[in-house]
Amino acid sequence: MDRRGAEAAQRCHRRSRGVPGLGDEDRPRQLAARHHREARCLRQSDLRRVDPQGGQECGRQILERADCHLSAGVAILEIPSRFPLRRQARRHRTEAPRVVTDFLQLDSVTVQFGALRAVDDVSIRVREGERRAIIGPNGAGKTTLFNAITGVVAATSGQVIFAGKDVTRAPVHVRARRGMSRTFQITNLFPNLTVAENMRLAVRGLSPRKFSFFGTDALDAEETRRAGAALEISRLHTRRDAAVKELSYGEQRQLEMAMALVAQPKLLLLDEPAAGLSPAERVIVSDIIRALPRDLTLVLIEHDMDLILSLVDYVTCLNNGKLLVEAPPSEIRGNSDVQDVYLGKARHNA
């Protein structure tokens, strides 16, 4: 067995003579692979022939000879991680960090119901802190677009990107926890509960905690504080103990806004907040919207052009599910395409 070990060591020595170092530029990749094979041969094939009872010393010599490749400057057992060319390739594959430029981004969003395209290839960009209005005649696809943004309906195609993350396939509750909140055209309240109880349900619906009889005092206090702040903004703090069914329709709309605000959203979507209100109630809603924090991104649907043009920074007009025009409020009022949509082309012939 000593003779076999000696022969194996001699083979290793002969193969390693004249081997250039890793710094040589003559066929470095092929040489590295060759020495890798040599070491594997010595460590596996030759060691299997060593008698475990009498050849321990020989086995040690074989391992020492296998390591002679390291002295030649070739990292045999760690070639993939030590080879300079491989390191350069990994550096080139590193992706640059993504830069978020738009807070809400819709890319070619389409929502189709059978043969009907309610939203047809709409692309919109909304900056953080911007106040954007979505206008258009009835059936233009405004509410369906809201539903696609918030996940109430799934987009047939296209992408919805919110705060730099693709939420196109995310469910409603995931989008809500990431900072989306909205109101609806028709109020969705619990009429037999009080204002405060409706607010508490809104807070609890977003909380990830499970019910517990222990250790909830601090959380309850935080929920009460948040609900009180939202009711203060919505001007319902004096009606917190009233049943919802006792509120006027305008106050119910204010409560819906408070329930949307209690979630402390980053993006608030209001679907016709002033629809069906008296002129006095419209003024209250307008004042509530103006009082919202300026860092809160706001998108609203509304038919009251005077209300919209006094509140928003930018206006998007839809017609038949398609994007018609986008412009600042000062340009929208006199835009001929918008006038055609709302008043009809017959006005030109009047």
Write structural notes for this entry.
By secondary structure, this protein is an alpha/beta fold. It has two domains: 92 residues; 186 residues, P-loop containing nucleotide triphosphate hydrolases (Rossmann fold). It has 15 helices and ten strands. The strands form two sheets. It has a six-stranded mixed β-sheet with strand order 6-7-8-3-9-10, sandwiched between helices. Strands 2-1-4-5 form a four-stranded antiparallel β-sheet, covered by helices on one side. A hairpin with a 2-residue loop joins strand 4 and strand 5. Helix 1 runs parallel beside helix 3. The radius of gyration is 35 Å and the shape is globular. It starts with a helix and ends in a 7-residue tail after the last helix. About 13% of the residues have low confidence.
Name some characteristics of this structure.
alpha/beta; Rossmann fold; 350 residues; single chain; globular; 17% strand; 43% helix; six-stranded mixed β-sheet
Question: TL;DR?
Answer:
The chain folds into two domains: 2-93; 131-137 and 171-349, Rossmann fold (3-Layer(aba) Sandwich). Helices cover 43% and strands 17% of the residues. It has 15 helices and ten strands.
Draw up the topology in text.
Blueprint: H1 2-16, H2 28-48, H3 56-66, H4 68-71, H5 79-82, H6 84-93, E1 104-113, E2 116-126, E3 131-135, H7 142-150, E4 157-162, E5 165-166, H8 172-177, E6 180-182, H9 195-206, H10 217-233, H11 249-261, E7 267-271, H12 279-290, E8 297-301, H13 305-309, E9 314-319, E10 322-327, H14 329-332, H15 336-343
Parallel strand pairs: 3-8, 3-9, 6-7, 7-8
Antiparallel strand pairs: 1-2, 1-4, 4-5, 9-10
